[in-house]
Request: fold
Amino acid sequence: MDYNYLVPANSKKQGLIFGFLTKVDLIILLVGISVSFVLLLLLPVTEIWAIIVTLLPVGSCAFLVFPIPNYHNTRVFIQEMYKFYFVNRRKYIWRGWCYQYEQSDK
Reply:
């Protein structure tokens, strides 16, 4: 008997909550929802500034866990961008295909 298995393209999503959230992402989103709910109870929601302040935590947390292509979500993209520009900054020197250079390698 020949067992040929085909792994589906979305097999990594099976380990995620709702197919796109890790445990850390779910905690971030639940904290944002909880803070917005508490602000909803404390602030007068009849004024526009109170509506904006109330929705700001859940909006920013939802932005962080929003999935984007080539990365898990926006939070991971921001982490990778920070690491690339500030933590592991490398200097790449491109010299081209010239046989002789005017400057030395000092």
